[in-house]
Structure formats: C-alpha cells, structure tokens
Amino acid sequence: MKPRFPAEWEAQDGVLLAWPHEGSDWAPVLEEVRPVFIEIIRQIARFERVLLTAPHEAEARAALTGAGVDMSRVTIHELPSNDTWARDFGPLTVIFNTHPVLLDFGFNGWGLKFAADQDNLISRRLRERGAFIPNLQTIGLIMEGGAIESDGIGTILTTSACLLSPNRNPQLDRSEIEQAMASLLGAHRVLWLNHGSLVGDDTDSHVDTLARICPRDVIVYTACDDQRDEHYAELKLMEEELKSFRAPDDSPYSLIPLPWPRPCFDDMARRLPATYANFLAINGAVLVPTYRDREKDILALERIGQAFPGREIIAIDCLPLLKQHGSLHCVTMQLPQGVLA
C-alpha cells in the first residue's frame, strides 16, 4: 500500500515552531522578530495546538504568557536549535492506511549554505521526548518541507532549481527523485516548475514562495505586473508553466495571481524576498504574511480568501521575518491529525 501525503489544509493537531534566540541569526533583531513569532503562536493557538522548541523554555514561556497567549494550547520543549525554519527541518507526515507516520528527511542548511547540525536533530529529539504519537522514520535524503506542495491525492508541485540542486541529492537525477517521492510520499505525478525565483531567497526557489496548491484544484501564485522589475520575465515564464499544468481530472488548474508587494530591502540595500504565497493554512483559518504595503496587503488577503472560502483570513505583519530571507510559512510546520501526543 502506498502512503498518502496530506494537503496542508486537511485537519491538523497543531503546528511546530522554534523560538528565535540569541544564538540564532535573529540575534541583532530579536526585539523586532519575537513579536512576530508571538503573534503567529497566538493566532494558531486560537484554533489548534502549538509545539514549540526553545533553548530556554522559561524565557519563551514568560514572553508568551506576558503577551496573553493561550498557554493551555502551547507545549514547549527545551531543545537547542541553529535557527527557526521549522518548515524545512520539521517532520513530514504521510498517512499509511489511515495511520500517520513521520518522515525525518535530512536537512543540510539549504544545500550546505548554513549550519544545521542542531536543527537536523529536532524531529528525533521531539520523538524521544514523547511529543509525537507515530513512529519517526529517518530518511537518507535531503528534502525540505518548503520545497514541495501536495494536493493530498498524489500530486506534488516542486521546482527543479531546488530538488535538482547539486548540494542536496547529487546522486539522484530527476527520475530518481520522482521515484523517491512516489515510494516515500505516494506521489502519482510530479509537476516541475523550471522557472520562478525571488532575489534574496536562500532556498534555491522553494515552491512555497512561488506557487501553492489550494482546495478544489486552485493554485495561487506569485505574479509580477511591473515590467521594469528584475523578476518580471522569470515569473511570467512560471505563469505560463502553471497554465500548462493539468489537474488530476485533466482540466486546467484555476489560477489566482497574488499581488506583487513593493520592493523590500535590508540595511545594506539588498533586496528581500517578499511573497504573499508564504501563507499557512490551519484548522478553520489561513495566516497570511503582510509587508506594510496597504493596497497590496489587502488584495493578497482577498485573493487568498477566494482560494479558502469559509476560513478566517488573518493578516500577520511579517516584514521583520524578511530580514533573514523568509516569511510565515517558512517558520511553521503543520502536524496533521493524529501526530501530537
């Protein structure tokens, strides 16, 4: 029997995050970034549970309690971490015959760019501490959660720039990676984007910055309408690829373009990868990153609301997260129903 890789919008037990701390790259901007994490945790806890790792449990608990977070839905495990990108070091959950199984893929700092020795152990350490009900299988492949999108019925959407990166799984070619996704994730087919990238992105074009599969064969995607922008040509080519893809019933996907936020830069005038595609679907809601661009923020909330009718659409100011080249989805990993102890 093949496994099934559930879609993000299916029922969840909770969401995994890691607390930003002095030993992480957030150190210079902790006062800016911690309120973002607190707000993400606050909003998730309204709907489901939060599993949080922190190098100093008391510090994280005090900050969350002081901000009025519902701590009855927050479990904190004191564990070391290199950084906070739970999307990419957290476990991927597959379903075998209605039972969840956790897959602990390798994480090597997005192709050997950054230290990841502690992050790569977090899933195993959480399992040892009893945080998870299912078994945890360690997989000898590099695979980041932000690199793949699932519709829950066998379609995987990904990018060739990431999964074919020579610093991830150089021993595997495209067909061998597809075979691995078939056996491990139950993929019946893989849709490869060969175009699409954001300046300032460290991940080699994670698909969760570019295009997201939503219910009812909808794909929302990052679109650039400014012909003078350096992203315009590449994102237009990606748009054409998305138009060529077919849903499982062989009909075209319903495509919803997301607005292009005004350019964001760091203190050194380097461009940062602002994208509304980096949202998180949870039980009954969708958390959407915003970037203090009022017109585009409002439009992004409306369009993501079109893709998730009936869910509460919640804006979270994620401009500070861009300073380390990520956003809301990157710092979270959903844990499907039946995972949390």
TrEMBL record:
Enzyme superclass (EC): hydrolase
Cleavable signal peptide: none
Biological processes per GO annotation: putrescine biosynthetic process
Record key words, sorted: Hydrolase
EC numbers on record: 3.5.3.12
Any GO molecular function: agmatine deiminase activity
Pfam families: PAD_porph
Protein name (Swiss-Prot/TrEMBL): Agmatine deiminase
